[in-house]
Amino acid sequence: MCLRSVAVPITRATPEKDLRIRKAPPHEQWEDPILNLHAILPRSKANGPGDRMVIWFQGCSLGCPGCFNPKTHSPKHRLLVPVERLLRRIHEECTDLDGITISGGEPLEQAPALLKLLRMVAEQTELSVILFSGYTLQEIQATENGPEILCLIDVLISGRFLSELRHPRGLLGSANQEVHYLSERYSPRDLEKTEPAEIRFDADGRISVSGIDPPQFGNSPFADYGAHFSGQDEITQE
To answer: Which residues of 177-215 are buried (b: 16+ CB within 10 A; e: fewer)?
Structure first.
């Protein structure tokens, strides 16, 4: 087991549902794993320390009420991306990136493809990795790929989002969630300095809104974007 520091709970814990991480869809069992992604944001300062690429996975069976990203829950295919092609995209950006942040959706429900991506990032780059999961540390440890996944990331944000305990701070959405520092790369102070939200305007006119506590747009055209929205990236399956 690679845990090198203890979890840092923000406040009182709330019992989690006893749910098993569901098996990956058939496309993730291919020899060359395919990721089903919701969106990619090439650069962000509101999803962890420094400049980070953010990768949102598509599909989540937990379906937490009040989730920031309800459009990521459906397991239907959205952006099917071979792991090696995504890695090439990361290489293109990594010269001045501090790391990648993986969110969702639920990344652990695509564990085989996620594991391959993390192995290749660790082998070929020096980027840090922050992973958001609705599952608890104990649930992840109990899965086939969970222990190795934990060895390949620097920070895990774990636990269901509970709207009645909503308390955005650092990278946490609700007070029951926990931060696990799995390497010596970051400290609580680093996460606390992360910007709570950002709005980015791309050169091609696209707008992206992300962060743990983004502005609310009410009935504006941005209302459907969700707290961690990014316009669909151009990367597609070859």
So the answer is: bbbbbbbebbeeebbeebeeebebeeeeeeebbbbbbbe
What pLDDT digit, counting tens, does each position of 75-88 carry? Answer: 999 999 999 999 99
Let me know how many helices (H) and strands (E) the chain has, helices first.
5, 12
pTM, two decimals, is 0.78
108: which 2 tokens? Answer: 């652990």
Phi/psi at 70 (5° precision)? -60, -25
Q: In angstroms, rounded to a whole number, what is the distance separating the alpha carbons of residues 222 and 97? A: 27
Cα distance between residue 234 and residue 84, in whole Å: 16
3 state SS of 200? strand
| Cβ(143)–Cβ(168) below 8 Å | no
What is the number of alpha carbons within 13 Å of residue 148 lying toward its C-beta? 13
Q: What is the CA radius of gyration of the chain?
A: 16
